[in-house]
Every structure is written in C-alpha cells, then in structure tokens.
Design goal:
With about 775 residues, the protein is of the alpha/beta class. The protein has 40 helices and eleven strands. The strands form three sheets. A five-stranded parallel sheet has the order 2-3-1-4-5. The chain has a four-stranded parallel sheet with strand order 9-8-10-11, sandwiched between helices. It comes from Ideonella dechloratans.
C-alpha cells in the first residue's frame, strides 16, 4: 500500500511551477522513495490521467485499462506517490469516484489550493484571452462564469472523506515562505533544504496584461480558435516590451463589489464547513488598465513593429485592424488614414461582395460582445425587429444592429419588451450604459424587474411631493413615505417599496410612528396563506390557479407583471421581494445560499423596524382585498428561507407547498439563471427543502406535487381548497384549469426516468414525496 497525494489544482494557483518542479526532479524524488509517475502524464502534469478519469473506460473498470495498469505498475513498491493535475478538480463527482476506485487499497490524501474569487477570476480570464479565442469583457466573463469553490471541496471531501482533504489558500501571506512550492512541500512532508533539487529560474505561465491583453482580445474576434491558441509563445515574448504588458490587470470597485456579492455564500461555506480563513474581498484590484486608452495608440504601434520584426503571425492579424481617433475617450487621434493592406490572394475567393460604404455588419459585430450576441439570438424576434428598420438597413443582422445601434435609437427587440420603458424606469441600467434587453435577460428578470410590451413609453417616475408640515398642536401626520425616511438608517433595499404598499393607510396619527405601527394589531379576522416553493418549482402556476379560484393575491397593478419567460406573470409583490431580500442580507445570507443560518433569519422577527415594515405591508395587502374575500395569500420563492420570520409577524399564517423534482429544478435554474452546474442547483434544492422541513409535518400545510398539478389539476387542488375552507363554482374552475398548458413547462423529466441524485437529495426527495397529498385518480 502506498501513501498517495493527489494535487487537484485549482488552475491559476501556481500549478505550473509545482508540476515543473516535480517533473524536473522525478528521478531525485524517486531516490527518496517518492514516485511522480510518468504514466498518465502530458508534459509535466497528469492531464492524460485526468482526461481518462472522465471517460466511459474509467467508468467501466478503472483497473482494466492500459492507462490505469501502467500507473499501478509504476506505483508498485513505492511508499509514497504524488499525482498532480489542475484538471482533476474539473472532472467532478464522476472523476473523483473513478479515482477512488482506481486507488482502492491505498491511503489517499487530496491537496487543493483555492484563491480569492476576484483574483482567481481575473487571472483565469487573462489566461483564457491569452491562450484561446475568448473575446468578451472581464465583466461578461464574471457574469457567465459561476464557480463556487466550496462545491469543489465538497465533491472531493464527499468521496475521499472530510479529513483526507487538505485545503490551502493561494495567497502569498498564507503560503509557507510566500511560495507555493515551499507550502506544498510542508503539506506533503518533503523536508530538508529544497536547494538539493532543480528549479526553473523563471516564472512559469505568466499572465499578459494591459494593452497587450486588450490587443489579443480584439484579435480574438477575428481569429479561428486554433490560430488564437497558437500565439501564446509570441505573446510571452511581446510581454517583455513593457512592464505593464504582464502581471495583474486593473479591476474597478463596481465589478469587485459585484463579485464579492456573488460569492458571499461560498465564502461563508468555506469558513463554516472547512475552517478556511478566507480573506476580506478586495474592493478593487491594482494592475494595468485593460485597455489603457491614453497609451493604446503607442502600444499598438510598439507591439505591431516588434511582431513584424520577429515575423510573428500576430503582426499579420494586426494588419487587419486600424485604431481610429480615441480623443473622445481620453486617447490620441492616431495616424492619418492609410491605404488598407491588399487582401491575400487565397482569401479573395472567400469574399462574396465588396463591403458597403457605410459601416458593414461585420465591422459592427467586431464591437459586439459574443456572449451578448449569443443570448440575444435566443430571444430577439428578427421579423418583428426588421419591421422597425428602414429599407437600407433590412440586410443587417438584427441582433448586431440592436446591440450597436438599435437600442440607442429606442427600437424594441420583441413584442414583449419596450426598450424605452425599461431604460426610463431602471435608471441604473441607463446610467451604466448597458444594453437594456441584455440586462433584462441576464439580470433583470432574476431580480424581479418590470418589463413592458413593445411601444410602451411610461413617463419618468415623478418626484415625490414633500410631506405637508404638521399643524401644531395636532400630532404629526406621518405618511408611509415619511416613515421610510425615518428608518433609512437600516439600509434595507425593500424599505421604500414596502412603505409604498401602505398607501391605503396614508397617515399614521402618532408622535411615535414606529410604536404606533407595533401597537396596532393585524385585523383579527384576517386569514393569511404563504405559497411556499423553491424557484422554478411551479409556484407561479399554483398562484395563478388559486387567484382564479378566489384567493386574493393583491391588485394586479401591484404585482410583478408578465415577463418573456413567464408570460402569465409571477403573482409576486416587489415590496415583499424587497423585504425578503433585506431579511436575508441582514442575516448574512441570500436566496442562492446553500447553507443559510435559519435561526438568524427567524430571530429578525424581533427587530422593531423590520416587524413594523412587515405589518404595514400585510395590513395594506389585507385592506386591498375585494368585499367577501376570506383568504389573502402571498408568494416569493425566498419565503422558503424567510417563512419563519413571517410566521412570527403573522401567527395565524397557513402554508401551501408545491414540490418539483430536484433535477427538473436544477435544470431550469441552469437554463434560466445562468448556473453552470446541476450540482449547484441540486444543492440549492436541498437547502430550500431542509429550510421548509418544519412546515412539512403541519396538518394545515398541504404539500402537492408539481407533476400532479399538471396531470390532474382539479383532483390535486380540490382537497386543498376544502382544507382551506374555500369553495369555487364551475366558472372559477374553468378559469383555473385554463392556465394549465404544457407549453409552460420547459424542464420536464420522463415519467419513467429515475435520474441519479446525490444521496442527501434523494433522501430529501423521498421524504417530501411521502408527505405529499396525492390526488385520488
């Protein structure tokens, strides 16, 4: 039996330096009883073994293949064996299990280096622009690259055991001697002076930065992937031209804050589950601007001249482009116009026609982010959009036109979306200069932002009139807006919206408004129902059907309206969403936290300010109901985490839970929410349903299956309605059943498919299924 150490990455944590050291010293290490196997190696690292771990051959019988047998033979008789590839961690649960089967009988320890999220993403982005055809901005890369590091640790800890995973922070202040090699040696017990080994005298795998990185990003929009990847050596040589061409890149405070918020839950889990002393997220990254417009012209000429002198392929690609006048951006005017280099004969045959005198679609496409283009192609209605274009623009690509010109002109990308309305009502999007349709698709709908049909041009939001001054000696007449102003020190995002929901109680005749709100109890006859279910679980369908059956969810004009991905509407109050977001933020959590502290959330019911806001909103919702309505309901997927708070604020609160297969939810989250892995979606499903567990055993809280609601809607809801003390005539049932349409479901599982689920998720799913009220059909 051997003591095996498997170094699994991450990438961009000094892996190249470490692997080069191990490869250069393979024989010297073997003389000390340490085997760094040749089997499975590609260059200095075991990338070949990593690829094999994710193959059907490894799934079938890990020890039977030539790759595995060669490795086991080389390990034979060696007391210590080290394996290293940053690709190991990317193989996920499948690769980890196959490796465990291969190394069965040996003592295995996993070593994983992690890096602060912003620095990790920045270095990863620089490497990808340098070594591939990636051409998007760093902001887009951050938006579309979702990689919770705790998931990596959880996967390998699950397979090999929590105690067999060594987590280290790749930070000069945390590493032994500020050096990843010295740190690794300390972790694996390689003692003595490392001077007895050979080590490369130069930096491994340095990142390019500054205007050289920006130039490569521009060229990537034109280069085939293979050509873009072949320029790494040229870029390494060119990075010596200026210090600013290598090293870290500059990242501003706005994007740094976005990344910090995105990975807040990940940091908590790394601290809580693994005891990792994670650093405070940086407010920005120092480094070279990408681009540095002030020096871009000079750097362009410097790089182009050096590349030509050395005969680099990069010089030929740079000949395809010319920089224009950059003075409006703080740069230089550039050179006088010169003739365009002649087209290569072998390329002439590929050109169907000469470019138009006006800017051609291809030129505009070079300025459009490929990630934005890809997303908009899925949603922009080309025929509808072309109908808005003049005759001379009919031949242009509608997606490129909208991204480069159309949005600025106020054109609408689809019948369901008004460009002008979105920019009018969402000033932050307008002021940031973001494309409105892209912002809505990528962020806005997930944030619950309103969108309007094409052609809608709402007036700008009016400035609230100042509150009238009180007339002494009468008590102050404080409106909901005034109360919000008094409470602004809480910095709650949903505060103003919550107060606006109290317009039906415009005046609070008290000198101590907070105490007045607390003292006035909720109406004793009020009945409340919380619709509980995770995101993408069918809560909107359930809410729409209940509304048709006579349950009050609020005035239509106060509910979150239809969106392109949910044309029937969400039946959610923005005020409630804001309050729930604020609750989770105060509890150090968020809706996508897979390990929320439920006790902290529920304890916030003792916060006088939060309780006042909740009561004001509940009272306003109750007073808005039509005469004769006996049950008022509210819905927000965040209620899975915040229901305990609302139960404390509203003791007679009932619940109704809708349950959907965890894999269908995870797939829907990945398709609609931008999550990169089913694993993260499954972890969220488990967290939400653990949080709802106290509600599952209550007799007054029915649990229904989303699949039953689709297959037998009336048989599923009839007993629920009876339990809630409601009756509905045939006309109401007709309206409710009309909402059940197959087209509303985008991520269904075959009825006979029993997809493999992680053990914890499978157990939770079985428990919840057992609690469901199944229809008698």
């Amino acid at each position: 039996m051997s003591d095996v150490v498997v170094h699994i990455g991450l990438n961009k944590t000094g892996t190249s330096s470490l692997q080069d050291f191990l490869a250069l010293n393979t024989d010297a290490l073997r003389a000390e009883g340490i085997c760094y196997p040749h089997a499975g190696r590609e260059g200095a690292a075991h990338h070949g073994l990593s690829t094999w771990l994710g193959s059907p051959e490894a799934d079938a019988d890990p020890s039977a293949s030539p790759v595995a047998q060669a490795l086991l033979d080389e390990m034979q008789g060696m007391p210590r064996v080290w394996l290293s590839s940053e690709d190991f961690h990317a193989q996920g649960l499948r690769g980890a299990r196959n490796l465990a089967r291969l190394l069965q009988g040996h003592s295995v320890r996993i070593v994983l280096y992690l890096r602060e999220h912003l620095a990790y993403l920045a270095s990863w982005y620089q490497q990808n622009v340098q070594a591939s055809a990636l051409s998007c901005s760093f902001a887009s890369f951050c938006h579309f690259t979702h990689k919770p590091l705790s998931e990596v640790a959880d996967t390998w800890g699950q397979v090999f055991g929590h105690g067999q995973l060594t987590l280290r922070l790749y930070d000069r202040r945390s590493l032994v001697g500020g050096d990843v090699l010295l740190d690794f040696a300390a972790q694996v017990g390689l003692g003595g002076d490392l001077g007895r080994f050979v080590r490369k005298p130069y930096e491994n795998n340095p990142s390019i930065s500054g205007n050289l990185l920006f130039i490569k990003r521009l060229l990537n929009t034109l280069l085939p992937a293979a050509d873009a990847a072949a320029m790494v050596g040229e870029l390494m040589e060119l990075s010596k031209l200026r210090p600013g061409f290598r090293g870290a890149m500059q990242v501003g405070p706005e994007l740094a804050a976005h990344v910090a918020r995105t990975y807040a839950a990940d940091r908590r889990q790394l601290r809580q589950r693994w005891g990792l002393d994670w650093p405070v997220p940086p407010t920005e990254l120092a480094g070279s601007p990408v681009p540095d417009v002030a020096t871009l012209h000079g750097d362009w000429q410097r790089v182009q001249a050096a590349a030509r002198k050395k005969g680099f392929a990069l010089a030929q690609t740079m000949d395809w482009l010319r920089l224009g006048d950059l003075r409006a951006l703080g740069g230089e005017a550039g050179e006088a116009p010169v003739s365009i280099p002649p087209i290569r004969p072998e390329a002439a045959a590929d050109i169907a026609s000469p470019p138009a005198p006006s800017p051609a679609p291809a030129a505009a496409a070079a300025n459009a982010d490929p990630i934005m283009v890809e997303l908009l192609r899925e949603h922009l209605d080309s025929a509808f959009y072309r109908a808005q274009l003049p005759a001379e623009a009919q031949g242009l690509d509608p997606v490129i036109h909208y991204l480069t010109r159309g949005a600025e002109q106020g054109l609408d990308p689809s019948p369901a979306f008004s460009t002008r309305a979105y920019l009018t009502w969402h000033a932050d999007v307008r002021e940031a200069g973001m494309n409105p349709f892209f912002h809505y698709l990528r962020h806005g709908r997930e944030e619950g932002r309103q969108a309007w049909p094409a052609g809608t041009e709402p007036e700008a939001a009016p400035t609230p009139a100042p509150a009238p001054a009180p007339e002494p000696p009468a008590a102050p007449r404080l409106s909901a807006e005034d109360l919000a102003a008094l409470l602004n020190d809480t910095a709650l995002t949903g505060q103003v919206q919550a107060m606006a929901a109290c317009a039906r109680q415009p005046e609070l005749l008290a000198t101590a408004p907070l105490q007045a709100v607390q003292a006035e109890a909720l109406p004793p006859q009020a009945r409340w129902l919380a619709l509980l279910g995770m995101h993408r679980s069918g809560t909107s369908l359930l809410a729409g059907m209940l509304q048709a059956l006579g349950v009050w969810l609020g005035p239509v004009d106060e509910l979150l309206g239809p969106q392109p991905d949910n044309p029937e509407g969400f039946f959610e109050h923005p005020a409630l969403m804001g309050l729930d977001e604020a609750l989770l933020e105060q509890a150090g959590s968020a809706w996508d936290d897979t390990a929320p502290d439920m006790a902290r959330v529920t304890a916030l019911a003792g916060d006088a300010v939060l309780q006042a806001q909740a009561r004001l909103w509940l009272r306003g919702l109750w007073r808005s109901r039509p005469e004769g309505t006996v049950l008022t309901a509210f819905k927000d997927p965040r209620l899975c985490y915040t229901a305990g708070f609302w139960q404390a604020c509203c003791p007679p609160l009932q619940g109704l839970i809708v349950l959907r297969h965890p894999l269908a939810v995870a797939r829907s989250l990945r398709a609609r929410g931008g999550y990169s892995s089913l694993r993260h979606g499954l972890a969220l499903w488990a967290a939400h349903h653990r949080a709802l567990a106290p509600w599952r055993g209550r007799a007054d809280v029915p649990v229904i299956l989303h699949s039953d609601l689709l297959a037998a809607p009336r048989a599923t809801l009839a007993p629920v309605l009876a339990a809630l003390g409601l009756q509905a005539d045939e006309s109401r049932w007709t309206q409710a059943l009309a909402q059940v349409r197959p087209g509303r479901v985008h991520q269904n599982l075959a009825t006979d498919a029993q997809a493999a689920l992680p053990d914890e998720v499978a157990a939770l799913w079985a428990d919840w299924q057992a609690a469901a009220w199944r229809p008698a059909i």
